[in-house]
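Please complete every field before forwarding. Incomplete forms are returned to the sender.

SECTION A: IDENTIFIERS
Entry label: holo-214
Bound molecule: S-adenosylmethionine
Molecule representation: SMILES string

SECTION B: INPUTS
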Amino acid sequence: MANRILFDHQRRKADNSDDASFYSQPRIVHHLDSAFRRKLTSLYKDRIPKNSIILDLMSSWTSHLPEDILYKKVIGHGLNLEELKQNKRLDSFWVQDLNRNQKLPLEDSSIDTCLMVAAWQYLQEPENIAEEIKRVMKPNGQIIISFSNRAFWQKSPEIWINSNDMERLNYIAAILIAQGWKSPENIIEKTSQKGILGLIGKEGDPFFSVISRK
Ligand SMILES: C[S@@+](CC[C@H](N)C(=O)[O-])C[C@H]1O[C@@H](n2cnc3c(N)ncnc32)[C@H](O)[C@@H]1O
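SECTION C: PREDICTED COMPLEX
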C-alpha cells in the first residue's frame, strides 16, 4: 500500500476526460526544445551504464538516449501505440493509462534505470506509481525524472499547476521518499540554444531532473 501524500483536490485536473482519447492522435513532435534535449541526452550518457535494462515510462516516438550507445534492453510505455511503434530505441512496449491503472506488467527487480520525461506532470496517483516503479527496479536501480516548464496544462493535476519549479522538485522528492526511495538528487540548469556560427544563442527550456535510487 503506497504512502499517500496528496489531498484529493490536488489530484484534480481541468480536463477530466479520458486521457487515452486526449492522446489518441499520434504527436510526432518534440515537446521540449533542442537545448533541453541536448542536456537530457548528455545526462543519460553520463548516468546510465551501457549494460542497463531501461524502462522509458510515459514515452513517445523518442527516448532521448544517446545514439552511439547500445543498451541491453529498452522497454517503452506510453498512451499512443503509433508513437511507440515509431520509437526506434524500444525493444518492446505497451500502452496503459497510468491514471486508471498503476500496476506495471513487469517483473519484480527487473529494471536498472527508469526514465520519465515531461511525464510526472500528468500523474494523478503518483504515490502508487512511485511504489510500483520501486517494485520493478533492481536493488540500487535508479529513476531519472526530467521536466521543464511546459505542459498540456489542462491535463496536469492541481499540485503541478499550483507549484513553481522548486516546489515541483520538492513534490516529486516527497513522493519518492514516502515510498522508500533514497534521498533524491536535484539537477537544475539553464540551457541555451545554439546560435549562429556555434555561438551561444537565446535561453532554452529550463532543465530539471530528480534522480533517486531504490
Ligand atoms: C509531453 S509527452 C512526453 C513524451 C516523451 N516522454 C517525450 O519526452 O517526448 C507526455 C506523455 O505522457 C504520457 N501520458 C500522459 N498521460 C498519461 C496517462 N494517463 N497514462 C500513461 N501515460 C500518459 C503520454 O504517453 C505522452 O506521450
